[in-house]
Amino acid sequence: MNAHDEIQDLLEGYVDETLDRATYKRVEAHLAGCAECRAILDEVAPVDLSGLAGGAVDERALRRSVRRAMWRTVTNTALMLVSLWIVGWLISAAVIQPLVVNRGDRAVIATRATFDMAMMVNEGAITTDWDVTSGPASRTNTAHLALQVGAGAKELGEVGSRIGITRFGDPLGGWFWPYVTGNNTGTPGEYRLSELGSGTVATVAAHFNEPISMARAQELADSTEYDVRVVWAGFPTSQREDLDETPFSGFGYGVLGYPTCLEPGMVDESHFGGTSASGGYGIGIAPASITNALAEVRRVVGTLTANPWLIERVIDQNASDVERLEQTAAHLAQADPGVVTLVVTGPTTELVEFLAETEVEYPVVLAVDFYNWSDFVCGR
Fold first, then answer.
1. Residues 6 or more apart whose Cβ sits within 8 Å of residue 64
2. How far apart are CA 14 and CA 25, in angstroms?
């Protein structure tokens, strides 16, 4: 670098008076004999008001200096805001999310609970999509629910939970439960299906007055005699005579259930990983089985009893329900707690025959669709 270029690099320090005395004098001496550097100096120098007193004002130079000062102010402000945003993001990602929001794996547990509970209390529901949003000091989970109808699905809406430093913005007050059965007329299944005739498919909640055994439920699920598929199994939360005293009695007659199968692609592991709050947790998908559905219900109820804060913060229930949940966990721990609901989907003509030959006491049509049937439901 020659002396001329070096001086040009020092001009900003010369204007800001940040140079040492010797360097300042060297720049000043160069400027005395260099018109090019003096012209550059005019571009970086602040507004010169010395000529105002004598009335000799270069209006164009003054405007240029003012614009330059304003641009510097805007640029510096923008840089400061960007810097503050980066610092805030780093603090959130490295400290607030992992150490505060997710203390004791709370964010991970809330994520799993939001996914599981939506299907637990909505007969026949599955989660078709999932959103995880991490704010500066919070984590919001949103599950998109659908009801299986033949080989397709009927959208039910969204459920969500928020876990954070404060309660502000928590989706409490009923948003968590878009209850499926409550949105239907409750018309007995055989009558509704017989009106539809062939060429349609339906999803029916088959309720048993007395619980059937796990073996019998699995036999119905595996049967090839009728062209139908069992997509959801519900289990009583206590003995039949005690249903009114059990948790969630307002959500499905004291029944908690789970899909008997989920396509592995429905729940990508990235939904539970990839953010500073989750720690990379995944969710396992069990093969089609009534036994596996019961195992999932047991796991979710166990998570609730082990984390009482979930009941109020995520599940929107009263914390006093912990004791009743423990009673539910004890009931479900039986080797064969029985099955009281099977949600079945398939062609209406096949469903009529299926319901007539089984022990179903009160089938309820949940959804109907046209020409939407395939053998590829639940892996079959």
1. none
2. 10
